[in-house]
Design a protein that fits this description.
The complex is a heterodimer of chains A (about 500) and B (about 400).
Chain A lengths: L2 E12 L2 E12 L3 E5 L6 H9 L8 E6 L2 E2 L5 H6 L2 E4 L11 H5 L6 E2 L2 E2 L1 H15 L14 H14 L4 E5 L7 H16 L3 E5 L3 H7 L2 E6 L2 E7 L7 H9 L17 E11 L7 E11 L3 E6 L5 H8 L6 E9 L2 E3 L4 H7 L1 E4 L3 H5 L6 H6 L7 E2 L2 E2 L1 H15 L15 H13 L5 E5 L7 H16 L3 E5 L3 H7 L2 E6 L2 E7 L5 H10 L1
Parallel strand pairs in A: 3-10, 3-11, 6-9, 9-10, 15-22, 15-23, 18-21, 21-22
Antiparallel strand pairs in A: 1-2, 1-4, 4-5, 7-8, 11-12, 13-14, 13-16, 16-17, 19-20, 23-24
Helix pairs in contact in A: 4-5
Chain B lengths: L7 H8 L1 H20 L7 H26 L7 H18 L4 H26 L3 H20 L9 H8 L13 H27 L7 H23 L6 H19 L1 H11 L1 H6 L4 H27 L10 H11 L11 H21 L3 H26 L1
The chains are: A alpha/beta (about 500), B mainly alpha (about 400).
């Protein structure tokens, strides 16, 4: 097979930083090519060079597309040649219909007047192609993330895509939606569409990719051919981090104490649709020093459960009781929940966990300003000392606590969120997707922090979509489906198959 | 990601262009008008006037800064100010109520009005733009009704003193006013002492600070400017009462916004309301408070304004909200909330004030004045956005 795309010795420098250094990438016609690398390795920069976001002339090296040197001056240039990127943050307008979104900027129109029948006819054809059974007139905002992803792909197909680039396409998708998306990619491949997929999920990479290019610190480390050799996850991880990761989950001495956290008869209804019950009769308990997982598909109600417990931040008509150390506690507002010894680390650190424009110091003290102030006046020296303490303990890699958190990497940001909550000195921590979107090395560090917390006797509840992570970290796992617990497994008895079978047989 | 310390003076200046830019813009504008008005701008009488004329804008800018930092806006302040002025006039002149009762009642009414608007914004989540637009219409109408379309005045002497009074010279010299000079010297000393304190702390924690040359130069300019103004004031009638209240309020609000948990939380809700809420911050209550506080300061502004004119007119406060909001944005606050400083808002208000005053002395018509002020506002915000893009 000949190459559709060849990027030769691409070097891109920003003031003071060499983001890409002699990167090579060869994508053959009709293959699915995966690009793996830690956050900050240069994957997105490379894709921006390819799509013309960084125009020709702002980088060194050549892009050969279809055998000829291509010089893209902007996204429009590359899109005209059939190169289409679907970003992690979807670029859809939620208040417009599927049809309107599909042809946004590419309208089926004669002299500015939109031909609606034609638009709808083509929309239907495209939706069929991506296997989405929704009417073209449905508002995009009413669809789930998985379906929106399919709309994005249909939008790419509407532009006669030849090279489809997907940036972390399954990061926000549930297991079943992810599978459907990967199947679609294979389907498109059969129809001759070449794709590049950037992903952290190595099992998915292994499933669909014909070849894998690993990038580390802005250079190409290796290119693996799935047809010539067996690609193992360990091999990719080794190339990504530059060292062997014999054990992806650090060892922990498992030692559970008394029950410190209990939830009983927990029921929650949807905040807008009063007749929809979101959480049904949940009962759970966590012991001191124990790490308890909550497994379940996206939309099963895990986050809603956590947020409804934590200061009734989600839902209405909430009933049930929460006990800490055997005594009933009031968690009806966030500050009461914090006072009771509860902490909730949200799954969405950027929009719910951090103030991105503020520095590490101010973010660290945010949930416990009383701890650094006297009679309402903040002692800035004490605040700095506290932030410094956590920066050191968490190994947050920055020159000082006066760095804006918006400029930190995902892993470091997550450590700041953890610092914020540890400073409230909680007894029970609920961690919602604590390693989402952070790279392998930082994940390992977060796991280490979780283990330290459990060693200190804190009770940890861990919500995660990544089953291997739950299996590797937890003492016990609750399995959740459609708002209820459908099973409870001890670590020794748990496996991905058993968890899935509990979910599907229900 | 990390700016190393060796970047040097040039890089430091680029990074902090906004803060220095604001100060230099004020100085440049003053020099400009001083020249084109043949020295009228900085005459003792006119400097005194500058403070008297702009005091109510500055007082309200303090509250507006907090509202804007919290991510809201208050369009009603001009109307509220007019309404409270009218209310004071009716109570004092028509009903002959004593001044010492009228003032607290008026301030309470202002706080109540702010609270009412804050209630809808904070607890019902109606956009502040709409709530305060409604408030603007309501209170403009109510002041017309209160005054029955007439002007009411004059006021008792003790009420006028709120704006037109001066601190007597405690040392009995009179000209130059030694009390004013002493106050100026003390203010300069305190400013420099606080600057050194901050510098020492920054050095201790390795925070990047301005280069020493800048620190010295900036403090020299500020101190010289301050002493110059004080010297001029002392040559006229000394320190106006309203200047004292303005300075005191500025210090108090700067302290609240920068040093207290209350202030920190207001910045937090403007920076990321959801994150603040999930951190246990009572976001609704705080938003409510910022509006109540704004209402209180608008009432104070209304009293000061009425006292200065010695009459309450139906036109009082007309369009003032725009000047106040413009001052806050010229001072560097961000439209999306979460950032902005009290001192910036005060300097922004002075920039507007000097321009108003200077252009009036030059005899520029009100038509061109509006055009020029509009362009200055746009330029200031454009400068912000441009800077941010270049850095990001």
């Amino acid at each position: 097979m000949s190459a559709l795309l060849e990027m030769r010795a691409i070097t891109k420098t920003f003031p003071g930083v060499k983001a890409l250094d002699q990167v090579n990438l060869v994508v053959r016609k009709g293959e699915i090519h995966a690009i793996c690398g830690e956050n900050g390795a240069g994957k997105s920069t490379l894709m921006k060079v390819l799509s013309g976001v960084y125009p020709a002339g702002s980088y060194e090296g050549d892009i050969l597309y279809d055998g000829a040197v291509a010089q893209f001056r902007g996204i429009r240039d590359s899109e005209d040649r059939g190169i289409i990127i679907i970003h992690q943050e979807l670029a859809l307008v939620p208040l417009l219909s599927i049809a309107e979104n599909l042809f946004l900027g590419n309208e089926r129109a004669q002299s500015g007047v939109i031909n609606w029948p034609e638009t709808f006819r083509q929309t239907e054809a495209l939706l069929k192609k991506v296997g989405l059974s929704e009417a073209p007139g449905v508002q995009v905002g009413k669809l789930g993330v998985g379906k929106q992803q399919l709309v994005e792909i249909a939008k790419a197909l509407a532009k006669d895509v030849r090279l489809l680039i997907l940036d972390e396409p399954t990061a926000a998708l549930s297991e079943s939606d992810s599978q459907a998306l990967l199947d679609l990619l294979l389907e498109l491949k059969a129809q001759g569409v070449t794709s590049i997929i950037i992903s952290h999920k190595l099992n998915e990479v292994r499933r669909v990719a014909d070849s894998v290019t690993v990038i580390r610190d802005g250079t190409t480390v290796s290119t693996l051919d799935a047809h010539a050799e067996q690609i193992t996850e360990d091999r990719i991880v080794r190339d990504m981090v530059g060292r062997d990761m014999a054990n992806r989950y650090p060892e922990r001495e498992r030692r559970a104490g008394d029950v410190v956290f209990e939830v009983a008869n927990w029921n929650v209804w949807h905040p807008e649709h009063a007749d929809r019950q979101i959480i049904r009769n949940i009962a759970m308990n966590v012991r001191a020093g124990e790490v308890v997982g909550i497994a379940g598909l996206m939309g099963s109600g895990r986050t809603e459960l956590a947020m409804s417990i934590f200061g009734r931040s989600y839902g209405r008509a909430i009933s049930g009781e929460v006990k800490m150390g055997g005594k009933r506690v009031d968690t009806s507002t966030v500050s009461r929940a914090i006072d009771a010894g509860l902490a909730y680390v949200t799954e969405d650190r950027k929009s719910l966990g951090l103030i991105l424009d503020e520095n590490i110091r101010k973010n660290t003290s945010l949930a416990n300003l009383a701890g650094v102030s006297a009679r309402g006046v903040i002692d800035e020296n004490r605040e700095t000392a506290v932030a410094e303490k956590y920066r050191a303990a968490m190994r947050i890699r920055t020159p000082s606590v006066f760095q804006k958190v918006g400029n930190l990497s995902g892993g470091n940001q997550q450590k700041v969120v953890l610092s914020k909550w540890l400073f409230t000195e909680p007894e029970v921590l609920i961690l919602d997707e604590p390693t989402r979107g952070i790279d392998v090395g930082a994940k390992y560090e977060i796991y280490g922090i979780i283990n330290e917390l459990s060693a200190q006797g804190k009770a940890v509840v861990m919500i995660s979509s990544e089953m291997p992570e739950l299996l590797g970290m937890c003492d016990r796992i609750y399995v959740m489906n459609e708002g209820a617990f459908v099973g409870e497994l001890a670590a020794a008895d748990a496996s991905q198959e058993r968890i899935m079978s509990l979910i599907v047989t229900e | 990601m990390n700016q190393s310390a060796k970047d040097g003076i040039g890089a430091y200046l680029v990074k902090h262009l906004r803060e220095y830019g604001l100060l230099f813009a004020l100085i440049a504008i003053m020099v400009f008008f001083q020249v084109v008005t043949d020295g009228t701008l900085l005459k003792p009488v006119n400097i005194t006037n500058l403070f008297l004329q702009n005091s109510y804008i500055i007082i309200m800018a303090l509250g507006m800064l907090m509202v804007i930092v919290a991510g809201h806006i208050d369009l009603s302040v001009g109307s509220v100010m007019g309404f409270v002025g009218a209310l004071a006039a009716v109570m004092m002149v028509s009903w002959n109520m004593p001044v010492w009762i009228v003032i607290p009642i008026c301030l309470a009414v202002g706080a109540l009005i702010g609270a009412a608007q804050g209630y809808f914004v904070a607890f019902w989540r109606i956009p502040s733009f709409i709530v305060t637009l409604a408030g603007m219409l309501v209170f403009r109408g109510l002041s017309l009704w209160l005054l029955a379309g007439q002007s009411i005045g004059p006021f008792p002497k003790s009420f006028q003193a709120l704006s037109n009074g001066f601190i007597p010279d405690l040392f009995g010299v009179g000209k130059p006013n030694v009390t004013a000079l002493a106050a100026g010297v003390i203010a300069v000393a305190v400013l420099i002492w606080m600057g050194l304190q901050t510098r020492a702390r920054n050095a201790r924690y390795g925070i990047e600070d301005e280069p020493t040359a800048f620190f010295v130069l900036r403090n020299a300019i500020v101190s010289a400017g301050l002493m110059f103004v004080i010297w001029k004031l002392s040559g006229f009638r000394g320190l106006p009462n309203v200047l004292i209240s303005m300075v005191a309020l500025t210090v108090v609000y700067a302290f609240i916004t920068e040093r207290t948990t209350l202030g920190r939380r207001v910045y937090a809700i403007g920076g990321n309301e959801k994150a603040a809420k999930l951190s246990g911050i009572k976001t609704e209550r705080l938003a409510f408070f910022t509006f109540m506080n704004m209402g209180f300061l608008a009432a104070l502004g209304g009293l000061v304004f009425a006292a200065r004119l010695n009459t309450a007119t139906p036109k009082a406060g007309f369009g003032v909200e725009l000047d106040v909001i413009a001052a806050v944005f010229i001072g560097g606050a961000s439209m999306s909330g979460g950032s902005g400083k009290i001192i910036g808002a005060v300097v922004g208000a002075f920039i507007m004030g000097v321009m108003n005053n200077g252009m009036s002395i030059m005899g520029i018509g009100i038509d061109y004045q509006q055009v020029i002020k509009g362009l200055v506002l746009l330029a200031a915000v454009f400068f912000d956005v441009y800077n941010k893009q270049k850095q990001g």
